[in-house]
């Protein structure tokens, strides 16, 4: 079977324009803020520039101002945006908003889309996705979900605690996963709720100090204390929350890989530029074998990551579940991207750990990716289980 990976002309053109926009407009802002922006004014300025450049929110449908890119189209454009830590924020394709837009497009009612998706797609508001809980609650094992929503006249009351909720500070609303049936440890029985930021029952407990700092709005602990929401706040069907989470998580895993692949390429560019000019022991660093090996291994990790992303995106575009291929791609990319950034820093010597280049910042940003969106160990466990099951089915057992 012939495989043609040539992108459509419009997608290739958008990727090129995104790359130019990131280099000309975003990189100077990243340099000024050392990769970490906390100001809404800067976010709005970047997003206004992206709108003017015609590269804003390319993933959402045209009726929401985007270009309706499929997953393979996103792979090209998001990688270019990810070349800067601030590129995804500028294009409004950063986590968690991008994944939330994807899910709202797929499962929200028309009224919910008008109220939540439309302003999210324009960048007028931000959002967060609240699933993870402090121990013993939901983390790698979602069935451990302890946050509860009880049915009351006219709606639901949510009780529970969430943590590591990215972007929660300043978000206009949260998508909250709560148990509506069964007990912690039971399979299923979760529902998603749309909770407005001004709901008095949703309280910010604290900002969690973390290794990474570049995701806008930080990582927050939230308390749901007798938090009343109406029936209109239910996203999708009651008790189907875990199924919908898969609608979000498979694609969101891949878009994270795409964006961080951009940072891996950037790290490699910084390292190669340094290796080409730095002279040691009578030769260029770039001509010393062990550095050549690191440069080559970076290229291999980048190319292999891109290949696995493409395969998984193709399956998602075909309407397949992509469970195995997104797990494989996520595990490989998270580890490969970390290796690339780490080797790039090593090639640069002391310069690499200095504030004169952003490699130290990149390293801190990519390390947690081996934990969120499913840790490497959770994915390896799931990959092995599916593989053994396939083997047993093939053997007729
Ligand atoms: C920077 C960052 C941002 C995040 N943003 C969000 C967010 O916006 N919303 C949200 O809901 N959550 C968010 N999370 C939480 C994230 O989804 C969880 O951290 C993740 O699901 C792991 O859960 P846990 O931290 O409770 O680790 P645990 O579940 O306690 O797991 C601990 C470790 O156990 C190991 N492990 C896991 N499964 C297996 C297995 N099957 N076999 C062997 N070992 C295993 C892994 O090494 C894992 O790291 C974020 C986390 C981070 C670090």
Structure, explained:
With 397 residues, this protein is of the alpha+beta class. It has 3 domains: 9-122, Orthogonal Bundle (Butyryl-Coa Dehydrogenase, subunit A, domain 1); 127-235, Butyryl-CoA Dehydrogenase, subunit A, domain 2 (Beta Barrel); 242-394, Butyryl-CoA Dehydrogenase, subunit A, domain 3. It has helices at residues 9-33, 40-52, 71-81, 87-91, 97-107, 110-122, 241-277, 289-317, 323-347, 350-353, 359-366, 376-394, and strands spanning 127-130, 148-152, 155-166, 173-179, 190-196, 202-207, 219-230, 234-235, 279-280, 283-284. The strands form 3 sheets. It has a 4-stranded mixed beta sheet, covered by helices on one side. Strands 2-3-7-6 form a 4-stranded antiparallel beta sheet, with no helix packed on it. A two-stranded antiparallel sheet has the order 9-10. Strand 9 and strand 10 form a beta hairpin. The longest helix has 37 residues, at 241-277. The radius of gyration is 22 Å and the shape is globular. The model has no long low-confidence stretch (mean pLDDT 96). The structure holds flavin-adenine dinucleotide. Flavin-adenine dinucleotide (FAD) binds at residues 96, 128-132, 139-140, 164-166, 210, 212, 219, 368, 371-372, 375, 377-378, 381. Belongs to the acyl-CoA dehydrogenase family. Keywords: FAD, Flavoprotein, Oxidoreductase.
Q: Which CATH architecture of the largest domain? A: Up-down Bundle
Query: Residue ranges: pLDDT <50 for 5 or more in a row?
Result: none
Topology, number of strands: 10
Ligands bound to this protein structure: flavin-adenine dinucleotide
The CATH topology assignment of the largest domain is Butyryl-CoA Dehydrogenase, subunit A, domain 3
Number of contiguous helices: 12
Structural class: alpha+beta
Residue fraction in strands? 5-15%
Strands of the largest sheet, in order across it? 1-4-5-8
> Termini distance?
32 Å
Helix-strand string: HHHHHHEEEEEEEEHEEHHHHH
Percent of residues in helices: 40-55%
